[in-house]
Specification:
Layout lengths: L1 E7 L2 E7 L13 E4 L2 E8 L11 H18 L7 E8 L5 H11 L5 E6 L9 E8 L2
Parallel strand pairs: 5-6
Antiparallel strand pairs: 1-2, 2-3, 3-4, 4-7, 5-7
Helix pairs in contact: 1-2
């Protein structure tokens, strides 16, 4: 895990990076911690080596595992998630996605879910989250 402290005018932001989740594919951080919140960037259904699951269920589980790794590095975990935003490449995958999602997010955080025309690296799912830190 690598953490970089960034200064901002009204406080401190902590940039979070972990090798337990895929590296960012652009000019952004895996997560930023500010105040008592962690803002995790969208996680795809690929493992840290770049391999994608075969279907929406496998990719959803991997995206959530990636999210869990990023949140752990940020000082939080899935049980502290207050809001997720989820993107599906095909809304017809909603039921299968929802079944896997429900097994991980038993606390039922607030959620938005939309169909996206396309997701990076051909992924079927992307999930971002806001969580309280410990």
């Amino acid at each position: 895990m690598r953490v970089l402290i960034l200064r901002e005018e009204k406080g401190i932001m902590i940039k979070v990076e972990t090798d337990k989740a895929p590296a960012a594919v652009g000019p952004y951080s895996q997560a930023i911690v500010t105040g008592n919140l962690a803002f995790a960037s969208g996680q795809l259904g690929i493992d840290p080596s770049g391999n994608a699951g075969a279907d929406i269920a496998a990719q959803t589980a991997q995206a959530i595992e990636n999210l869990a790794a990023v949140l752990t590095a940020a000082g939080s975990d899935l049980s502290r998630v207050v809001k997720t935003t989820c993107f599906l490449a095909n809304i017809a995958d909603f039921a299968a996605f929802n079944e896997v999602y429900g097994k991980y997010f038993t606390g039922k955080p607030a959620r938005s879910l939309i169909e996206a025309a396309a997701l990076p690296k051909g992924s079927l799912v992307e999930i971002e989250a806001i969580a309280e830190i410990f």
